[in-house]
Amino acid sequence: MADERMASHEPPTRLADGALAAAVLVIAIVVVRNREIDVSLSVILLGAGSTVGFEVLAGRDPERVRRLWARPALRAVIVSTALCLGVFAVVVSAGWLVIAGAAALGCYFVVLVLAASGIVPPPETWADRQ
C-alpha cells in the first residue's frame, strides 16, 4: 500500500499548501521582527501582486500546474529555493526581499482561506480560458 501511495504522485491539498505557507510566513515574520526590517507598503504590494499574478497565470492551465506540483522533487526544489533566497536576503541585508516574500506568502495564505471559505472563487476560475 505504501508503494501505491508513493507512486501516485498526488498533489498536496490546499490545506497542506496553506500550512506550509503559514509556517514559512511565521519564520519570515520572526526574521523581520528580530532584524527590525523596515516594512514598506510598495514592497508589500510587490509581493502580494506577485502572488495574484502567479495565481492568474496558473489558473490558465490548472491541470498542468497540479500535475507539476504533484512531483515531490519539484516541490522540494521550489520550497528549498525560496528558503535559500530568504536566507540570502537576510545575509546580504536585503530586507525588501524578505518583506516581499512574506507579503507573497501572506497573500497566498489569504487567497487560500478566502477560496476555501467560498468568499472568493478559487484561483483557477480567475483566468479567462476560452
Name the features.
130 residues; mainly alpha; 6 helices; globular; disordered N terminus; transmembrane helix; transmembrane; membrane
Tell me what you see in this structure.
By secondary structure, this protein is mainly α. The protein has a domain at 40-117. Helix content is 75%, strand content 0%. The protein is built from six helices and no strands. The chain has helices at residues 2-8, 14-35, 41-58, 62-69, 72-91, 95-116. It is globular, with a radius of gyration of 16 Å. The model is unreliable at 1-7 (pLDDT under 50).
Which quaternary structure do these chains form?
single chain
Radius of gyration from the alpha-carbon trace, in angstroms = 16 Å
Beta content comes to: under 5%
Q: Indicate the overall shape.
A: globular
Helical fraction: over 70%
Number of E-state strands? 0
Average pLDDT figure:
85
Order of helices and strands: HHHHHH
Low-confidence regions: 1-7
- So how many helices? 6
- Give the termini distance in whole angstroms: 40 Å
Short description:
With 130 residues, the protein is mostly helical. It has helices spanning 2-8, 14-35, 41-58, 62-69, 72-91, 95-116. 75% of the residues lie in helices and 0% in strands.
What's the layout of helices and strands?
Elements: H1 2-8, H2 14-35, H3 41-58, H4 62-69, H5 72-91, H6 95-116
Helix pairs in contact: 2-6, 3-6, 5-6
